[in-house]
């Protein structure tokens, strides 16, 4: 029986780095962010629904979604964010489950679902075990500002829109402390996978 791992963390916690480590170990990773971009491509049902709810002004001239415009709207308005999530999340879940089941049928020993909002979206039923990539609040803030060229206020607003990392840590089966080096994080991951009989 394949072990399904839910990988999560906060924005700029280094979850993508850990996700890459799984790929390096030839463990398939299904990335919710990637899937969420695919389900809103022109022609998909979520794309049509977003256009109906949010209007033409959040689309570029080539009819693709203007993520920056949409982001500005939903990060500032809780109701709009809920509306968008109600459209995108079910489509993402459906696609991720199809991919997960495909890997399991192929005989994979372990499959990772990389889901930023694993706990917020009550998606733990999709996985057997959870790993949270955690960092200190100051580290998270600095990384996010540097990565996305945000002001301190914008960065804090984005961090605040998610469940605090310390709460996620309390809910996790395992935690990778990502305040240190990449090698430190890798060692922690290897220990977890050995403990869970994946390696």
Order of strands across the biggest sheet? 2-3-1-4-5
Oligomer: single chain
Gross geometry: globular
Number of helices, where a helix is a run of at least 4 consecutive DSSP H or I residues: 9
The fraction of residues in strands falls at 5-15%
- Which fold name corresponds to the CATH topology of the largest domain? Rossmann fold
Please supply descriptive tags for the structure shown above.
13% strand, Rossmann fold, 2 domains, 199 residues, 5-stranded parallel sheet, alpha/beta, 5 strands
Layout of secondary structure:
Layout (H helix, E strand, L loop, with lengths): L2 E7 L5 H10 L4 E3 H7 L6 H10 L12 H10 L1 H28 L4 E5 L14 E6 L2 H12 L3 H9 L4 H7 L2 E4 L4 H14 L4
Parallel strand pairs: 1-3, 1-4, 2-3, 4-5
Summed up, what is this model?
With 199 residues, the protein is an alpha/beta fold. The protein contains 9 helices and 5 strands. It folds into 2 domains: 1-28 and 110-194, P-loop containing nucleotide triphosphate hydrolases (Rossmann fold, 3-Layer(aba) Sandwich), CATH 3.40.50.300; 35-107, 3-Layer(aba) Sandwich (Rossmann fold).
Q: How would you describe the overall organization of this protein?
A:
By secondary structure, the protein is α/β, with parallel strands linked by helices. It has two domains: 1-28 and 110-194, P-loop containing nucleotide triphosphate hydrolases (Rossmann fold), CATH 3.40.50.300; 35-107, Rossmann fold. Helices cover 54% and strands 13% of the residues. It has helices at residues 15-24, 32-38, 45-54, 67-76, 78-105, 137-148, 152-160, 165-171, 182-195; strands spanning 3-9, 29-31, 110-114, 129-134, 174-177. It has a five-stranded parallel sheet, sandwiched between helices. α6 crosses α7 (152-160). The mean pLDDT is 94.
């Amino acid at each position: 029986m394949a072990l399904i791992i839910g990988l999560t963390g906060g924005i700029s916690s280094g979850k993508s780095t850990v996700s890459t480590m799984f790929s390096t170990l030839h463990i398939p990773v299904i990335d919710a962010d990637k899937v969420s971009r695919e389900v809103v491509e022109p022609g998909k049902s979520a794309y049509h629904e977003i256009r109906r709810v949010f209007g033409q002004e959040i689309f570029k001239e080539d009819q693709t979604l203007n993520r920056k415009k949409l982001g500005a709207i939903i990060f500032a308005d809780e109701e709009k964010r809920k509306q968008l999530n109600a459209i995108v999340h079910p489509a993402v879940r459906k696609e991720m489950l199809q991919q997960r089941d495909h890997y399991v049928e192929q005989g994979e020993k372990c499959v990772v679902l990389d889901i930023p909002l694993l706990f917020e979206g009550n998606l733990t039923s999709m996985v057997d075990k959870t790993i949270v990539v955690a960092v200190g609040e100051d580290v998270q803030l600095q990384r996010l500002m540097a990565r996305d060229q945000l002001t301190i206020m914008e960065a804090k607003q984005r961090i605040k829109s998610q469940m605090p990392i310390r709460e996620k840590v309390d809910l996790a089966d395992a935690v990778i402390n990502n305040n240190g080096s990449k090698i430190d994080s890798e060692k922690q991951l290897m220990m977890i996978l050995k403990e869970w009989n994946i390696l």
